[in-house]
Amino acid sequence: MKRTSLVNKKIIITGASSGIGEKVAWYVAKERGIPIILARSRDKLEHLKADILYSFHIDSPIYIVDLLNKQETKKVINEIIENHDPVHGLINNAGIGMFAELSAMNDGDIESMIQLNVTSLIGITKQLLPYFQKQSLAHIVNIASQAGKIATPKACVYAATKHAVLGFTNGLRLELTASSNIYVTAVNLGPVKTNFLHTADPTGRYEKNVARYMLDPDDVAKKIVQQLFIPKREINLPFWMEIGSRIYQLFPAICEKLFKSQFMKK
């Protein structure tokens, strides 16, 4: 299917100050779209805004927001709708991971993961949904994870949040089946070489163990932007990991036994 042009399409991107979000904003602007970038770090967003303006002559609006603050987030989304109508897309990219056994995690870290990865994502989507339903075309992209398909030790809470994102995305897509103007896509990724892993595992052990498998955030962002405004159910990277997840769904006990060492990389 031929993709709708991104020229002048306004796309909200959460967690845009670094990693995948930053790269997605860059490639949206490269295709003459207008990324509306959200994050907590003003300095990083202003730097990205300046780079995009210099490179593509695109003025990318920035919004400083703590997505853990529900009222602050609602206010920012309302401001975006009011100031930048029409808005055409939403990429729910913001997220956090912390790799540890459940018994070693504190309640604050657990709550932060659930709030940012799930509650905020659902809240922003719900707030924008009536608005998107009035547009001729809109696209909601949720960054999930291969962890949403295969849970591993030391990532049970993180996996739970990504299971939730994937379930939410699939359910929402089915709810909107009759509404052909809104596309809903889940992006399921293996490990990506970003600062995400520095927070998830400060020891660097996991990053070292999976170094040869890690995805390039630049390649990931290109793939996401290439699929914007196409009715794509899922983007799964890397491909071999997606095949593995399908086999796992059929033979979970066998896979857990055969690939125990792989599951213990964290």
From TrEMBL:
Keyword set, alphabetical order: Oxidoreductase
InterPro entries referenced in this protein's UniProt entry, alphabetically: NAD(P)-bd_dom_sf (IPR036291), Sc_DH/Rdtase_CS (IPR020904), SDR_fam (IPR002347)
Record's GO cellular component terms: membrane
MF terms in GO: oxidoreductase activity
Family, per entry: Belongs to the short-chain dehydrogenases/reductases (SDR) family.
Matching Pfam families: adh_short (PF00106)
Protein name: Short-chain dehydrogenase
Coiled coil: none
PROSITE patterns: ADH_SHORT
Organism: Virgibacillus chiguensis
